[in-house]
Amino acid sequence: MIIPCLTFEFNSPPISHNRISEEVVAEAIAHVIESARYQGQSLDDLVAEVLEDDPLLDQVQRQWLSKIVTQAWQSLA
Questions:
Q1: Measured distance CA(26)–CA(8) in Å, rounded
Q2: What average pLDDT score do residues 39-55 get?
Q3: Are 30 and 72 in contact (CB under 8 A)?
Q4: Burial level of 23, CB count in 10 A (0-12/13-18/19+)?
Q5: What whole-number distance in Å separates Cα of residue 67 and Cα of residue 1?
Q6: What is the gyration radius of the CA atoms in the chain, in angstroms?
Q7: Quick one: how far is CA 9 from the chain centroid?
Q8: What single-letter DSSP state applies at residue 13?
Q9: Dihedral pair phi/psi, residue 3, rounded to 5°
């Protein structure tokens, strides 16, 4: 999956123990959706990218993420 370069401004100390807040994840997903729409991609295109084989996520995680992306896409419509 191609994820555009995102920049975030953090006014708080760095996140410890490699944990990322739900807000950061939600913001990243929203940015990916906005970028996909800007590039003329459909929801199906984006879901197909999420479901592509990837060394970072296993199949169950990719399925879960595709459902989250679909819900976010629909709520941001």
A1: 12
A2: 94
A3: yes
A4: exposed
A5: 15
A6: 13
A7: 18
A8: P
A9: -115, 125
Give the residue ranges of DSSP H helices in the chain. Answer: 22-38, 43-51, 59-75
**pLDDT tens digit string along 23-33?**
898 999 999 99
Convert 27-55 to b/e letters by CB count within 10 Å (16 or more is b).
Answer: eebebbbebbeeeeeebeebbebbbeeee
Q: How far from 46 is each of 32, 33, 54, 60, 67, CA to CA, in Å?
A: 9, 8, 14, 17, 11
Query: How distant, in Å, are the alpha carbons of 16, 39, 75 from that of 70?
Result: 30, 17, 9
pTM: 0.71
State the sign of the Cα–Cα–Cα–Cα dihedral 22, 25, 29, 30. positive
How many angstroms separate the CA atoms of 28 and 10, rounded? 14
Integer angstrom CA distances of residue 9 from 12, 14, 73, 76? 9, 11, 23, 22
